[in-house]
Write a structure and sequence with these properties.
353 residues; alpha+beta; GMP Synthetase, Chain A, domain 3; 2 domains; 4-stranded mixed beta sheet; 14 helices
């Protein structure tokens, strides 16, 4: 009795499959529509990334058609269709190449110089962590649930916005054009993370909702088990470096808080304040701001940081304190800026060096 409730009817299963697979005379219209929407999504995403506009990037997410072949691949695994799974995988492969190439060529069309500052919208997609993997897993659950339960279709735009597919792929292409290959790989890794996460959880939801036919066929069940095991393997494969990176980020955050406290004590009552502190593994990047009256521009032409620090404020002394507190060897880079003020000027002008 319980098994029958978990099994979908033939009509329900066929209705879902008709939304995911387009063959024979339906294939060409679908391919035309798919690549048309994919082109628009990639162009909008690339423009939004280059313009540093989050609203435009969100618009690109909403019209991206990539979720359909991803769910089709998950359904192929659950149905034990290796041939169809390979066909859908090739469609995803060529779609990935297409979006990457289109984004790579966009700076040439708009004549964007390669030595410009990388926008924040691009940089935000170059540091994937376990958080992004969890979002991808949840998005797969939501997408498969909406596929099975039509009454929840109003949540589909939210799923499209929550998971990043086209934007990180476009970011990868843009960064590759700018010869930022390390960052390009990180953006592509974010895309791959979301891809495998959606496939795994979408397939799991389809299994739990009785999408797989209940047949006593050993080969069929082995194909399904093998496909889901392979999906799980790829998720674990991306999860390992993401876990390492996430724990590293947590450690760096702790080291940063400790370092800020030490730097504050190191500064003491000097007319210097902390502008920025960044931690990258065993390297501490410190930027200080020296507050001076505007008259000092005419009295003292020194542009160095050292004359404005007390004798005990040395990098060696700071390094010794930080190393002792964090219990590890730390290298420190120290930079600064001047902030000039006067009684009639509430907002000082900064001068970096």
């Amino acid at each position: 009795m319980n098994d029958s409730r978990r099994s979908m009817s033939y009509e329900q299963r066929r209705e879902i499959l008709n939304q995911l697979f387009f063959e024979r005379e339906e294939r060409m219209p679908y391919e035309t529509q798919f690549y048309s929407l994919l082109s628009l999504s990639a162009i909008i995403a690339a423009i939004g990334l280059m313009a540093d506009s989050s609203a435009v990037v969100i618009g690109a997410m909403l019209i991206s058609p990539l979720m359909t072949p991803i769910l089709a691949f998950a359904a192929s695994l659950v149905m034990g269709w290796p041939v169809r799974a390979s066909r859908v995988a090739m469609r995803l492969f060529w779609a990935t190449v297409f979006v990457f190439a289109l984004a790579y060529l966009m700076p040439l069309v708009f004549r964007v110089p390669v030595n410009v500052v990388i926008p924040d919208q691009i940089l935000e997609r170059t540091n994937p962590t376990m958080g992004e993997l969890l979002i991808g897993l949840c998005a797969g659950i939501a997408a498969a649930y909406i596929l099975v339960h039509k009454e929840a279709s109003s949540a589909l735009p939210g799923v499209a916005i929550s998971v990043a597919l086209v934007p990180p792929l476009c970011a990868s292409g843009l960064l590759a054009h700018g010869k930022e290959y390390a960052l390009a790989w990180e953006a592509f890794f974010l895309y791959a993370t979301n891809l495998v996460a959606i496939i795994l959880t979408a397939g799991t939801v389809l299994l739990l909702t009785g999408f797989k036919p209940r047949v006593r066929d050993l080969k069929f069940n082995l194909r399904v088990a093998g496909g889901m095991t392979l999906a799980t393997f790829f998720v674990v494969l991306v999860a390992v470096p993401l876990c390492i990176r996430t724990f590293g980020d947590i450690r760096d955050l702790h080291d940063r808080e400790v370092s800020i406290s030490i730097i504050s004590d190191w500064i003491g009552k000097n007319s210097v304040e902390i502008a920025k502190v960044e931690v990258e593994d065993n390297i501490l990047h410190v930027r200080l701001k020296v507050n001076l009256p505007i008259e000092s521009l005419y009295e003292n032409r020194s542009t160095g940081l050292k004359p404005h620090l007390s004798p005990e404020m040395t990098i060696d002394a700071l390094k010794e304190r930080v190393t002792a507190e964090l219990n590890k060897e730390v290298d420190i880079t120290l930079k600064g800026s001047f902030s000039f003020w006067q009684s009639t000027c509430a907002v000082p002008t900064d001068c970096y060096f």
